[in-house]
Design goal:
The protein has ten helices and no strands. Helix 1 packs across helix 4 and helix 3 packs antiparallel against helix 4. The protein starts with 8 loop residues before the first helix and ends with a helix. The protein has three domains: 180 residues, Multidrug efflux transporter AcrB transmembrane fold (Up-down Bundle); 41 residues, no CATH class; 32 residues. The relative contact order is 0.11. By secondary structure, it is mostly helical. Its main location: membrane.
Length: 291
């Protein structure tokens, strides 16, 4: 927002910080419990960040709706309404993710098991921090807005102060743009209006619903076909612990034996008279034919 009071930059930053705290907590707990840290675990923070930011947007949207419904001075009622709207969606998202990754711990690959343990635990911590830490940040940000304080310096903004009497630095950091009006709740967000008045009625049209069903059927058919065409392309070195003997084996195999392709061996299972010259010539002829 352009208003120096209604700007929620710190609120968004704390949402990202909440996901970061979840990563630190889960990694610390798993390392304390002795779970091996493998290179694939380094991808987990990106997954947690995506889910954490999504939960943050849900919480903020529910908070904005609560501000339009409830008395903005009753913080407990506002937070209760926010959790009533957002907690169900956040909980279902967390449960499905945690279930998916903890099921992955049943695999026989130790590195995949470690990755699933780290990531699943991080989702649990992300859920806890969203409902505790970020909820508290929402309340603190609301109190800052109610106190008419600047989003960056948290100094009280005097809406009636003449800019000409102050320095340029004071005007930029302590007054800002759009601060001459009191900090009143804004109207409904344009995106919400678009989905409510245009997108929703468009989708509920019977012909559009039929088209959506057909499109989903095509998508489902394409997905099933794609599943039948999947081929293994994973680097097996990433599925082993960092100190495993498999790592140098694959390194040496790649360095010394990858140029000429797979090795071919021929085994003679019958008893052969190798002292017979004609037998030896026959074996050499067989080798030449194979080459």
């Amino acid at each position: 927002r352009l208003s120096c009071i209604r700007n929620n930059t710190w609120l968004a930053s704390c949402g990202v910080l909440s996901a970061g705290l979840a990563v630190l907590s889960s990694f610390g707990l798993m390392l304390f419990c002795g779970v091996p840290f493998v290179v694939t675990v380094a991808n987990a923070p990106f997954l947690i960040l995506g889910v954490g930011v999504d939960d943050m947007f849900i919480m903020i949207a529910s908070w904005e709706q609560s501000l339009r419904k409830k008395d903005k001075s009753n913080v407990k009622s506002l937070l209760a309404e926010t959790y009533a709207e957002a907690a169900l969606s956040v909980t279902i998202t967390t449960l499905t993710d945690v279930l998916a990754f903890f099921i992955g711990t049943w695999t026989a690959f130790p590195s995949v098991r470690s990755f699933c343990l780290y990531t699943g635990t991080a989702f649990v911590f992300c859920y806890v921090y969203t409902l505790t830490f970020f909820g508290a940040v929402l309340v603190l940000n609301h109190k800052r807005e109610q106190g008419n304080r600047h989003w960056l310096t948290c100094m009280r903004v005097d809406v009636g102060k003449d800019r000409a009497e102050s320095s340029c630095l004071y005007n930029a950091c302590c007054i800002g743009s759009g601060s001459r009006q009191p900090s009143e709740p804004e109207g409904e967000h344009p995106m919400s209006i678009f989905f409510k008045k245009y997108y929703g009625p468009f989708l509920t049209n019977k012909w559009i619903k039929l088209l959506m069903v057909l499109l989903y059927g095509a998508y489902l058919g394409g997905s099933i076909y794609g599943c039948t065409q999947i081929r293994e392309g994973i680097d097996l070195r990433n599925l082993a612990n960092d100190d495993s003997y498999v790592i140098p084996y694959y390194d040496d195999d790649q360095k010394y034996f990858s140029t000429y392709g797979p090795r071919v061996m021929v085994v003679i299972t019958e008893s052969v008279d190798y002292w017979n010259e004609s037998v030896r010539l026959g074996i050499e002829s067989c080798v030449q034919n194979l080459e």
